[in-house]
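INFO  loader      accepted 1 record
INFO  loader      residues=214
INFO  predictor   begin
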Amino acid sequence: MVEMLLVIAIIGVVTVLTLVAWSNEMPMLRADSGMLLVETQIRQAREAAIDHRANYMVTFKGSAEMVTCTSKLINGLPSCPNTNGPTATPPQSEISDITIDPNQMTYAVLSGVPDTPDLFGNTTTCVSSTGVCFKDTITSISACGSTPVLPCYLTFQSDGTVVDSSGNYVNGTIFMGQVGNTRNPTNPLTARAITILGATGRVKGYRYNGKIWF
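INFO  predictor   done
INFO  writer      dumping C-alpha cells
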C-alpha cells in the first residue's frame, strides 16, 4: 500500500510539473504560430508579385488582420481598391485575408522590448497604437498610407521590392505580441517581429527571449 501511494504521489508531482511547464510554453507557441502565419503570407505576396509580374498590395487592418490583393484580374474574385501608389490599373483581384487570434496576439510593440537588429524603428515610425512600423527611406518618417492609423498599405512590385503609398522604397517591421488582459498578462517572451527591407523585399522573422532578438 505504501509503495502504491508513493507511486501515485510521484505521478501526481510529475503531472503538476508537466502542466506548469506546458502552461508556460503555450503563449510562446501561440506567438510562433501567429508570426509564422503573417510571415508566410508576406513571403507569398512577394513571390506571387515576381511570378505573376504584377504588383501585390498588402494591407494591415485592425489589430490582427492582413489582406493581400493584386492588380492581376481573375474572374469571379472580388476587387481591391487601387489606393496605394504605383499599383496597376484596376480592377484588382485575388484577395487573401488572414486574421491571427486577437485575444492572444496583436500588432503591438510590447513595453520594454527593443528594436530588432535591423533597426527599422519601433516607436516613431509606427502607426498609432499598433506594431506596424514602416519608415520612408527618403523622408525617414512613418510611411503607411495617408493617415496615422490603420489600415497601412504596402506594395510588393514585380521585382520583389517594397514601396510605400508614394512609390518610395520602404523598410519596416511588423511587431506582434500578447497584450495583457484580465486572462493573459502581457508577456514579453511572446514578442515577435517580421522585418521587410524595401530595396530587396527581404523578409525576416525574429523572436525575443527576454534579452535579445534572434
